[in-house]
From TrEMBL:
<feature type="domain" description="SIS">
    <location>
        <begin position="1"/>
        <end position="128"/>
    </location>
</feature>
<dbReference type="InterPro" id="IPR046348">
    <property type="entry name" value="SIS_dom_sf"/>
</dbReference>
<dbReference type="GO" id="GO:0006487">
    <property type="term" value="P:protein N-linked glycosylation"/>
</dbReference>
<dbReference type="GO" id="GO:0097367">
    <property type="term" value="F:carbohydrate derivative binding"/>
</dbReference>
<protein>
    <submittedName>
        <fullName>SIS domain-containing protein</fullName>
    </submittedName>
</protein>
<dbReference type="InterPro" id="IPR035490">
    <property type="entry name" value="GlmS/FrlB_SIS"/>
</dbReference>
<dbReference type="InterPro" id="IPR001347">
    <property type="entry name" value="SIS_dom"/>
</dbReference>
<dbReference type="Pfam" id="PF01380">
    <property type="entry name" value="SIS"/>
</dbReference>
<dbReference type="GO" id="GO:0006047">
    <property type="term" value="P:UDP-N-acetylglucosamine metabolic process"/>
</dbReference>
<dbReference type="GO" id="GO:0006002">
    <property type="term" value="P:fructose 6-phosphate metabolic process"/>
</dbReference>
<dbReference type="GO" id="GO:0004360">
    <property type="term" value="F:glutamine-fructose-6-phosphate transaminase (isomerizing) activity"/>
</dbReference>
Length: 138
């Protein structure tokens, strides 16, 4: 069970946060990659039907859809998180285009996804294992 998330620019931060939430709540290996680094190893991880979530914003649309095409050519199941549907998407999560607020808007469906994945696995998303309410700084 692997999920890969790809973002460019501000959407890379969204991909990182989404991967963290999926790991913490559903215990599925989720890893985020910067779109510009995709050719340096991550594409080798993609197998037939590997879920790859792509975060699209107006400023990175052409390049991130190129990343989606590269992943799709290797058999990935492409989930697009964007304001407009692209033909490359196997599944589309529609979000409004909000400029610099896109990362905040795009993380919301990822939090719901993490929750739903946990529920599907019979896990309690309100009680993730090995997480504390506070962090001790030494």
């Amino acid at each position: 069970e692997h999920i890969y998330l790809i973002g460019r620019g501000l959407q890379y931060a969204t991909a990182l946060e989404a991967a963290l939430k999926i790991k913490e709540v559903s215990y599925i290996h989720a890893e985020a990659f910067a779109g510009g680094e995709l050719k340096h190893g991550p594409l080798a991880l993609i197998e037939q039907n590997t879920p790859v979530i792509i975060f699209v914003a107006e400023e990175n649309e052409r390049k991130i859809l190129s990343n989606a095409n590269e992943a799709k050519a290797r058999g990935a199941f492409i989930v697009g998180v964007s304001s407009e549907r692209a033909d490359i998407f196997d599944f589309w999560i529609k979000v409004p285009e909000c400029g610099n607020l896109n990362p905040i808007i795009q993380i919301i469906p990822m939090q719901v996804l993490a929750y739903q994945l946990a529920v599907l696995k019979g896990l309690d998303p309100d009680k993730p294992r090995n997480l504390a309410k506070s962090v001790t700084v030494l």
